[in-house]
Amino acid sequence: MSLTVNLYYTGKGGSAQAFAREMEQSGLADRIRQEKGNERYEYFQPLNDSETIMLIDSWHDQQSLDLHHHSPMMKELAQLREKYDLHMKVERFKSIDVNANDDRYLRK
């Protein structure tokens, strides 16, 4: 069972985009991707909100996510959030088995 957390980082004056760029350019995002249990760590921007960046953050299980939350990288991440004065909204999802009938709706 995977656990996915969507984090919406919102700021002003392009600060959310600058945060995501710094996460990528500093290598912090790549280090998080290398953590045991990380399955996905990708930033996206909603088309209808230029001041928000969404992070899709997926982990193998809750234990993997808990270990990440207690890693030294979280201090760096918190400092960047503060630097860019970001506010956050969170959504959590647990994976379920995909229904084989769903494939007929997908164009591949």
From TrEMBL:
A single GO molecular function term of this UniProt record: monooxygenase activity
Pfam families in alphabetical order: ABM (PF03992)
Domain ABM positions: 3-94
InterPro entries: ABM_dom, Dimeric_a/b-barrel
Keyword list, A-Z: Monooxygenase, Oxidoreductase
Name listed for the protein in its UniProt record: Antibiotic biosynthesis monooxygenase
Classification of source organism: Bacteria, Bacillati, Bacillota, Bacilli, Lactobacillales
